[in-house]
Amino acid sequence: MPLQKDYVTPATGATACYHVAKQVTLDKDGNNASISVASYLNAEMQAAGKAPLYTQQIVVDGLPPDGQNAFAYAEQQLAAAPPADNSTPTYANRFAFAGAEIVA
Description:
The structure is a single chain. A hairpin with a 4-residue loop joins strand 2 and strand 3. The chain is mainly β. The longest helix has 10 residues, at 70-79. It has helices at 43-47, 70-79; strands spanning 3-8, 15-27, 32-40, 54-61, 101-102. The chain has one domain (3-97). The N and C termini lie close together (6 Å). 14% of the residues lie in helices and 37% in strands.
């Protein structure tokens, strides 16, 4: 499921509202998942086959539990709120989509 949240793309300054996890790579040894996220102006542009405004890799700590779909896990992790203790994330863009709505 895609994510919906306003996100100002660093390359152009344009606001993308619709974000799709295109690839999820699981690293068992590193205990993390690398997610390739494509950001579009809106759902209609993605459905029309238009190019994303921006694409980035976001790494999240942890792996999906046995039996959980890797993409569903990735989307949940991308939308997750940052830790309450304000600790610094391992990766700079880790919480770029915190608070996003997971949409159908």
